[in-house]
Structure formats: structure tokens, C-alpha cells
Design brief:
The complex is a heterodimer.
Chain A: H1 5-9, H2 22-26, E1 31-35, E2 41-44, H3 46-52, H4 64-67, H5 69-85, E3 89-96, E4 101-102, E5 105-106, E6 110-119, E7 127-134, H6 136-155, H7 161-170, E8 179-185, E9 191-198, H8 201-213, H9 221-229, E10 233-236, H10 240-246, H11 250-259, E11 261-271, E12 274-284, H12 293-337, E13 348-355, E14 364-372, E15 378-388, H13 389-408, H14 413-426, E16 433-441, E17 446-452, E18 458-460, E19 466-468, E20 473-474, E21 488-491, E22 497-501, H15 513-525, H16 531-540, E23 550-557, E24 564-569, H17 574-588, H18 593-614, E25 621-629, E26 632-639, H19 653-661, E27 664-669, E28 674-681
Parallel strand pairs in A: 17-20
Antiparallel strand pairs in A: 1-2, 1-7, 3-6, 4-5, 6-7, 8-9, 8-12, 10-11, 11-12, 13-23, 14-15, 15-16, 16-17, 17-21, 18-19, 18-22, 22-23, 24-25, 25-26, 26-28, 27-28
Chain B: E1 4-11, E2 14-23, H1 28-38, E3 45-49, E4 53-56, H2 58-73, E5 77-81, H3 87-94, E6 103-104, H4 107-115
Parallel strand pairs in B: 2-3, 2-4, 3-5, 5-6
Antiparallel strand pairs in B: 1-2
Classes of the chains: A alpha+beta, B alpha/beta.
């Protein structure tokens, strides 16, 4: 049954109480139709007709399968069920390609949602109603939001640059493009890189290979214009001749051929006025779709977001580079500010340790220093510049250098502190430091100490008991330019361990310093016996929430009478320090001055022989051992070379001297080397040598 | 830090060369050269003042012998000054240098010895 316009106008006046009439629905903007169960159109309204570009009445009795195959495809499976059960099925999706084309290219695909519902005809053989809603716009809007949200998500995931570029390039694929190319320009504005993505992974791989070879993948005019002006470009209906025309070179052409774009939108990656690249979205001939003006707007928005993303990435990478460089600088600075190696003085073992603050830069104002003085004594210092970071570290460097120099001049601790204080305070930049300076004579155990407001050094006696040394001194340096400093003198027994530290070891926020000192006392009492292990042990005892930097210097006097063992390079220059070390050891074991001098003479001759004869210059080492056993001094000088048969140093006088100065002299030469053993009894203190 | 410092002073008829510091294998050549440079070809000779020499080993002793020989070739003489109790004096005695070269305790005495025939 068809409804004709004439028949329609003859309908009775509408009755509100009557069931919903067909006439009002005829012109409704929703597409409505009823079909038989086997798919023939019974009625269709005007909007439905418009879908097919035909007057609605002409559709009666048409097979839906013929005029709208896609719709029938979706409807057919459910039609029977709907009619039988009397229940509607809603939201079936159909994509329709309208038949109309225009000179602007094929019209875009339309998305429809179909509802299929039973129409009651009053008998068992019910018809089926179809309601179709065009959701194209709504779907597009959803997709746009999704794509833009994807761009925003990338901001939160600043990961590896390559991965980010790939994901940024891929954002619009496949919703708004079959392929997408992200161009990045360098400083000179010319294209430096292109990242290409495609909905098909294999094609993408081929394109990626071609892009890599193309020298100027973005050389085509449209891209250049976009980069120059910042105005996006839309190219629809692109064909093969266009590819050939755009190609900069054969490699570029090959890329364009593979890409086979039939439509492209290019938008700049812009940050304000700066253009850092461009994003091109393409539809390829495989899909045949074309972009439209609204796609340009989307591409522009994407371009803005991707640009921002890349800028963020650049800034993050820059910050990381600067941070790494700063860390390197800081490390080098820190290493140069602490002594490279602690002096090797016989009769004393020294170990130092520095732990930077746990927050901020790993550099601070704490330091330690140990200087071997010409007369064999040892200058020790520990200090703490107020503050943190680079400023404190540089003040520390100045202070350390000044103190080191005064120490080398042979100044006593109090005098050194006074000089340093004047120098430091004179700068008037408000820097202050606590400082403890000491001079230790390893041979006698004599200690001079002056403290400038610094925590008291800790001492562990040979019997294991621990005490603190409160010494005189003065105010922290830098506080009062003309302050007077005093010092104390004391005696340390052989085997005593001295620990210098900065307040980072004992201070803790909200805790009285006595608690920290008590902790240190206990830690030192239970610490291992070797200096190298003690510093580590003490640092490990710090509470977990300690944040300040810490410096620790551990010094231990050798136990009385410990044997001497030294290895020196077989060089003439090493002889002077060897004599000094041996003499110190002799003093420490309590040998009288005259005896000492003669033994040093004897040792020097043996060592000089080894130096001159045993090796080629710079080749080897000389090993020296000495021991005092039951009143007899034993000395061994060993080398691993071959004594040339030439005469000894001094024309034979050396050997003769050695012989005269000792009770027993034995020279044993083998293929492996030479041992010189000397023995002399102490029974003749300050003895005249035998003649 | 140099091990030894050489200071020369003209005290006619001699030249007084003082060696301050230590002399051992590492610097004996340098010391030799410095002393030789300081001694003019005229004059009666050299007074080698070792009173500030803290250390002298057998290579230094050999240097003294060589110096005496070289000066003799120029008809000049060598005298050595050391303090009585010094280790260096003991070394000179041990090596019998005192049998070949006059050893005095005082610079003026040494100059007088050189000047006498």
C-alpha cells in the first residue's frame, strides 16, 4: 500500500487520541522505513528516500537487499528474531557510502546507527521497522577527542625520544589518515628528520626505509610553504603525476610512489611563532578517501600539541644534560678538593673518608687534610665550612689551601689557625668554618692541637678505652678577624688511634649533641682495629635520617717496637725519604742518636748500592726490613736485580763503611737478586764504631 | 725541595763554598758541578764548609776525593770544615779522608791552612 501526496491530503484531521499517524512521520528528519520480514520495503519516509537519492514513494516494494545492501546485511540476521519476539534491536552500525559524488571528490563516508523494531500490523506476520540515525558527526567528534586525548597522554609519558616521535606520528592513524609523516626541522629551518607511520605495518617498514634514504623528504613545495608561513595546506585529489612533480630526487620519488597519497593535510608544529616541523596526514589510494577542511582544523590542533610535546622533551633532555654536566663538574671539583693520597709516613697509619650530603649536590664544606712535614712530623686538619653546595665547597677549597701552606711553613697549630683566620675573615663574605689543626710527631707521640670551635677529636687508647680531647683554641675561623688562638700539647702512647670528624657524624636535628658524641664513643670502642675499616664503621653508625655531609680522618700510631717494612723505588731520589723513614723508626724503637745516625748511614749505603747497580734506571724496587730483637738490630735490604760486578758506590767505600758500622754484614747474591743483611747490637749505646 | 744548597763566597786568597743540606747519590752530580763552577782558576783553593751539611754518604766522599785531585791538577788545595761532633766528621774519619785532606773545625782556620805553604 502506497501513500500518495493526494491521498495524504485527503486524510481526516489528526486526532490527538488516535495512535501516532503515519503522515507526521513522512517528513520527519529521521530516516524511517518499514520492511517485510523478507526484506521488501513497504513504506519509507522522505528522509529514507534521501539516503538513496530517490523519492520515497518509488521505494515501495523494492528489495532492501538491492537498494541498500549494506543495510540489509546488518538487518537480515536480526529481522526474523525481532519480528518473532517482538523486541527491538538497537544501535546496529552501518557505514554507508552515499552515491553522490561531487567535483570535490567522493563524499565522506557516513556512519549510521540502525534501530530494528517490530511493527504491529495486527496479525502474526509482522513487519519490521527501521530507524536510521546519521551519527557521522557524532562519531567524528568522538574520534577527534580520542586522538587529541592521545596526544595529551604523551605529555605524561616523557620517555625515550624515538618512541615518543613514533607515537606522536601515529596519533591520527587510522582514524583520520592512512599514513602520517612527522617532519622535524633543524636550527636552519630545513627538514632534518622524518618519521613515517602507516596503518599497515609492512607498508610502514618499506616507507621507513625509503624515508631514511631520501635526502630531503620534505622538499615538496607544500611542506616548505607550511614551514615558512605556518598556514596549513590541504591537497585533495593527488595523483601519480603530482608525485613525480613534487619529488626532489629519485629517492624522494620512490618514497612518494610507495606512499601513494591521494589526499594530504599538512599542518605546522608550532610553538607560538616558532615552527619546529610539520605533521602530514595522508589518505592513500588504497582507501581512496579524501580529507576535508575540518580535517585541517584537527591537524592544526594536533600539530600544536605535538609541538608542545617535542618542546617539553627537548627541555627535559636539556635539563638532564645540564644536570649530568653539573654532576661531572661537581665530582671533579670534589675530587680535587680532598687530598688525592694521604701521606705515607712510617710509624703512622692514616685513613680518610668523606660522605657528601644526602640532599642536593654531592659537594659540601667538610674536608680533611694530612701533610707530611720535612722534619718527619705530620700536620693534620679537619674542617667544616658553614653552608652547603658549591659556595661552601669553594670556601672550603680556599681555606684548605691556606692552611696547607701555613702548615708547610712549619707553623704550630695555633699560629696556623690565627693566620688562616685573618685571611678568611678579611674576605668579609660572611663565610665561617670550624676547624681543628694538629701536629703529631710519630716518633715520640707528641701531639699539639688547636681547635676553632670544632667538635672534640676522639681517642682510642691501646687498651681500648675511648675519650674525647677537648683542646684549647679559639672561635670558628672567619668569625673574628683578630681572634687569638691557643693550643694544647699532649702525649699519645704507641698504638693510640685518633679520630677527627665533622659534626655531620654526631649531629642530628632535634637531638642534643651529647647523644651523638655518646654514639660515637660507643662506635669507636667497638670499631675494628685497622684504620681503613674504622672510618667505614663510624660512618655506618650514623642514623638513617642524617643528611649533612661528613668527613672523617683516622690516624693510628704504630705500636711500639713494631718492625719496619718499606718498599721504595730503586731511584736516587728515594734515598732521602728512606733515610728519614728509617731514622723515625729508629727513634720510635728507642735507639740513641749516635747509633741512629750510623745505622742510617749503613742503610743508605746498602740502598744506594741497590739503586746504582741492581737495576737499569727506573726499573725496580728496593725492599727494606728492620727489626729490633733482644737488643740486636737486624736490617735487611733486598733487591731483585743483578749487581753488576762493578765496584760499589763511592769506590768501595760504601761497603767498607757498612762493614765498619755494623757487627755483622752479609751480602748474598743469587740469580733472583741480592740480600744485604746487617746486624748490630745495642749494647754499646751511641757507640764508637769499631775501627 | 732541593736536597742541598751551594753558597760560594770569595775570601781571598781562597773561595769558601758552603754546602747546606744533604748530599747523596741523587744530587752528588749537581753538587759537584756547582762547586766546580764556583771555584776560580786562580787563588789558593777551596774551603769546603760542611758544617751545615746534614748528611754525606760515600758518593759524597768520593766527590771530595775527586775534587782534591782536580784542584791539585791546578795547583790548588782543598780544605774541609766540619764541626767536631757532627756525623759528617765521623764519616770523613771512617773513610780516612782526613788522611788526605785537611779537616778543620773553623772556616778561618781552614783559610789559614790553605794560605800557608
Amino acid at each position: 500500500m502506497q501513500t500518495s501526496p493526494n491521498e495524504r491530503s485527503a486524510d481526516p484531521a489528526p486526532d490527538a487520541r488516535a495512535p501516532f499517524g503515519a503522515a507526521s512521520l513522512q517528513h520527519a528528519p529521521l530516516a524511517l522505513a518499514t520492511i517485510t520480514r523478507d526484506g521488501r520495503i513497504r513504506h519509507a519516509n522522505d528522509a529514507w528516500g534521501a539516503l538513496l537519492d530517490r523519492p520515497a514513494p518509488t521505494l515501495a516494494d523494492e528489495a532492501l537487499a538491492r537498494v541498500m545492501p549494506k543495510v540489509w546485511e546488518r538487518v537480515a540476521p536480526v529481522a526474523e528474531w525481532v519480528a518473532t519476539h517482538g523486541i527491538a534491536v538497537t544501535d546496529l552500525e552501518v557505514r554507508l557510502q552515499p552515491q553522490a559524488t561531487s567535483r570535490h571528490g567522493p563524499a565522506g563516508e557516513r556512519h549510521w546507527h540502525l534501530d530494528v523494531f517490530p511493527v504491529d500490523r495486527g496479525d502474526l506476520d509482522g513487519d519490521i521497522g527501521l530507524l536510521a540515525v546519521d551519527t557521522t558527526e557524532r562519531d567524528r567528534a568522538e574520534r577527534e577527542i580520542r586522538v587529541l586525548a592521545g596526544a595529551s597522554e604523551l605529555f605524561a609519558q616523557l620517555g625515550a625520544r624515538e618512541e615518543l616521535l613514533d607515537r606522536a606520528a601515529r596519533l591520527a592513524v587510522p582514524d583520520f589518515a592512512d599514513a602520517s609523516i612527522l617532519y622535524l626541522t633543524g636550527e636552519d629551518g630545513r627538514s632534518r628528520r622524518a618519521v613515517v607511520t602507516h596503518r599497515d605495518p609492512e607498508t610502514e617498514a618499506r616507507l621507513a626505509a625509503l624515508v631514511a634514504r631520501a635526502s630531503e623528504p620534505g622538499a615538496d613545495g607544500a611542506l616548505a610553504r607550511v614551514l615558512r608561513t605556518g598556514v596549513p595546506a590541504l591537497r585533495a585529489g593527488v595523483t601519480a603525476p603530482d608525485w613525480a612533480r613534487s619529488a626532489a630526487d629519485p629517492d624522494h620519488h620512490a618514497f612518494l610512489v610507495e606512499l601513494a597519497a591521494c589526499s594530504a593535510v599538512t599542518a605546522p608544529l608550532a610553538i607560538g611563532d616558532r615552527r619546529i616541523g610539520a605533521l602530514t596526514l595522508c589518505y592513500t589510494s588504497a582507501s581512496g578517501r579524501w580529507h576535508q577542511q575540518r580535517d585541517v582544523t584537527l591537524a592544526q590542533e594536533l600539530g600544536r600539541r605535538v609541538a608542545q610535546l617535542l618542546e617539553n622533551l627537548r627541555l627535559t633532555e636539556e635539563a638532564a644534560r645540564v644536570a649530568a654536566r653539573d654532576r661531572d663538574v661537581v665530582e671533579i671539583l670534589q675530587r680535587s678538593l680532598l687530598p688525592a693520597a694521604l701521606p705515607d709516613v712510617p710509624g703512622v697509619r692514616i685513613a680518610g673518608s668523606y660522605l657528601p650530603a644526602s640532599e642536593g649536590l654531592p659537594i659540601g664544606g667538610d674536608w680533611y687534610d694530612a701533610v707530611s712535614l720535612p722534619d718527619g712530623r705530620l700536620f693534620l686538619a679537619i674542617g667544616d665550612v658553614v653552608g652547603h653546595g658549591v659556595r661552601a665547597a669553594s670556601a672550603m677549597g680556599r681555606l684548605r689551601t691556606a692552611l696547607h701552606m701555613w702548615a708547610c711553613e712549619g707553623l704550630q697549630p695555633a699560629a696556623a689557625l690565627a693566620r688562616v683566620n685573618r685571611h678568611f675573615g678579611a674576605a668579609r663574605d660572611g663565610d665561617m668554618a670550624t676547624l681543628c689543626a694538629l701536629v703529631l710527631d710519630p716518633a715520640t707521640g707528641e701531639l699539639c692541637i688547636a681547635s676553632a670551635g670544632h667538635p672534640p677529636p676522639a681517642v682510642r687508647e691501646p687498651d681500648g678505652s675511648v675519650r674525647f680531647v677537648t683542646a684549647r683554641g679559639g672561635p670558628p675561623v672567619g668569625a673574628l678577624p683578630h681572634a687569638v688562638y691557643r693550643q694544647d700539647a699532649m702525649q699519645l702512647e704507641p698504638g693510640t688511634m685518633l679520630v677527627l670528624y665533622t659534626d655531620g657524624l654526631v649531629e642530628r636535628r632535634g637531638e642534643p649533641i651529647d647523644d651523638g658524641l655518646a654514639r660515637l664513643e660507643a662506635a669507636l670502642a667497638s670499631a675494628p682495629s685497622h684504620v681503613d675499616d674504622v672510618a667505614v664503621h663510624l660512618l655506618a653508625q650514623r642514623p638513617a635520617d642524617a643528611v649533612d655531609d661528613v668527613a672523617v680522618l683516622v690516624v693510628q700510631l704504630a705500636a711500639r717496637g713494631a718492625p719496619l717494612a718499606l718498599v721504595v723505588p730503586a731511584e736516587p731520589r728515594a734515598l732521602a725519604s728512606l733515610r728519614q723513614s728509617f731514622e723515625q723508626w729508629l727513634r720510635a724503637v728507642g735507639v740513641a742518636p749516635g747509633f741512629r745516625q750510623e745505622m742510617v748511614l749503613a742503610l743508605n749505603e746498602a740502598a744506594a748500592n741497590a739503586v746504582e747497580h741492581a737495576y737499569r734506571p727506573g726499573d725496580g724496587r728496593v725492599h727494606v726490613e728492620a727489626d729490633l730483637r733482644e737488643g740486636v738490630l737486624h736490617v735487611l735490604v733486598r733487591d731483585w736485580g743483578r749487581w753488576r760486578p762493578a765496584r760499589a758506590v763511592g769506590g768501595g767505600r760504601g761497603l767498607s763503611l757498612m762493614d765498619t758500622l755494623t757487627d755483622e754484614l752479609t751480602v748474598t747474591t743469587t740469580e733472583l737478586g741480592t740480600d744485604v743483611v746487617m746486624r748490630r747490637a745495642l749494647t754499646r749505646p751511641g757507640a764508637e764504631p769499631r775501627t | 725541595m732541593t736536597l742541598a744548597e751551594i753558597v760560594a763566597e770569595d775570601r781571598p786568597p781562597a773561595t769558601v763554598v758552603a754546602v747546606r743540606g744533604e748530599v747523596d747519590l741523587s744530587n752528588v752530580d749537581v753538587v759537584r758541578a756547582a762547586i766546580v763552577d764556583a771555584v776560580p782558576h786562580d787563588g789558593h783553593g777551596v774551603v769546603l764548609d760542611l758544617s751545615a751539611t746534614r748528611y754525606l754518604d760515600s758518593s759524597g766522599i768520593r766527590l771530595l776525593f775527586e775534587l782534591a785531585e782536580r784542584l791539585q791538577g791546578r795547583r790548588q788545595r782543598l780544605a774541609v770544615v766540619v764541626t767536631e761532633a757532627a756525623l759528617v766528621r765521623r764519616v770523613l774519619v771512617l773513610t780516612k779522608l782526613d788522611e788526605a785532606i785537611p779537616i778543620l773545625a773553623d772556616v778561618d782556620d781552614a783559610i789559614a791552612v790553605l794560605a800557608s805553604p
